[in-house]
Amino acid sequence: MKKLLTLALLAGLGISGAAQATLTDRGGGLIYDDVLNITWLQDANYAQTSGYDANGRMEWSAANAWAAGLSYFDSVRNVTWSDWRLPTVAPVGAAFNYAFSNNGTTDVGYGNTSPNSEMAYMYYVNLGNLGSCTPDSGDPTSCHRPPGFRVTNIGPFDNWQSYPFWSGTAYAPDPAIYAWVFDTGIGLQRSFSRGNEFVAWAVRPGDVAAAGAVPEPMSLALLGAGLAGSALGRRRRPLGAS
């Protein structure tokens, strides 16, 4: 199938180094990533849209339960998909590195372009967004927020939340208390207490195209930054203590 997305978008934003997926709109509210071989719900806050939760923000255990119990009807292929989960986080290197970095060399911080973190890969590589951390004097352990920073591209997704999203991965040093999150408002990956209420975005393995014919893929490049305006109106609220 013809692939419309090229590396031009990332090149224009000065981002490189990771294989970029084609995000293909399979119809029925489903977006396929051909590098990670996973399918995302087009609605990034479907827990709210579907009426499951008032604002879509849940504690970690509840978010995992929602994703695992989700049955989503695919109107294009007349299939109900029930194999959903939250996105996963795996180490950038051979093992998790819990030090902070602003250049993606560790697992805590900004600039993580590794496909081992599904949400970070989506944010930095597929969508070509920048993090809110500008390195100070090349030091990977410090940074400052550039003036006027904002997320510029939400691609083919609806109900984008500039807010932390839960991963389905517990934080190994203290898995009973903490889990990994990715903040799509600033590009930060870190851990938070599982008792916080954050957004849940459902993803499933594989390509729904195997179930039948699909429409032509959507070009992420054509969507561009123009889609961000209406979706980013929601104001961030303070996260509170971790």
What does this 3D model show about the protein?
This protein has one domain. It has six helices and 15 strands. It has helices at 8-13, 46-49, 60-69, 118-126, 220-223, 228-231, and strands spanning 23-27, 30-33, 38-41, 57-58, 72-74, 79-81, 100-101, 108-110, 134-136, 139-144, 164-170, 178-183, 188-193, 198-199, 203-205. Residues 1-16 and 213-242 have low confidence and may be disordered.
Short key terms for the protein model shown above:
about 240 residues; alpha+beta; disordered N terminus; globular; 5-stranded mixed β-sheet; 15 strands; 4-stranded antiparallel β-sheet; disordered C terminus
Number of helices in the DSSP assignment: 6
Largest sheet: 5 strands, mixed
Give the ordered list of helices and strands: HEEEHEHEEEEHEEEEEEEHH
Low-confidence stretches: 1-16, 213-242
Major β-sheet strand ordering: 7-8-13-12-11
What's the number of extended β-strand segments? 15
Q: Which percent band covers the strand fraction? A: 15-25%
Q: What gap, in angstroms, lies between the N and C termini?
A: 45 Å
Assembly category? single chain
Shape: globular
List the helices and strands and how they pair.
Elements: H1 8-13, E1 23-27, E2 30-33, E3 38-41, H2 46-49, E4 57-58, H3 60-69, E5 72-74, E6 79-81, E7 100-101, E8 108-110, H4 118-126, E9 134-136, E10 139-144, E11 164-170, E12 178-183, E13 188-193, E14 198-199, E15 203-205, H5 220-223, H6 228-231
Parallel strand pairs: 7-8
Antiparallel strand pairs: 1-2, 2-3, 3-15, 4-14, 5-6, 8-13, 9-10, 11-12, 12-13
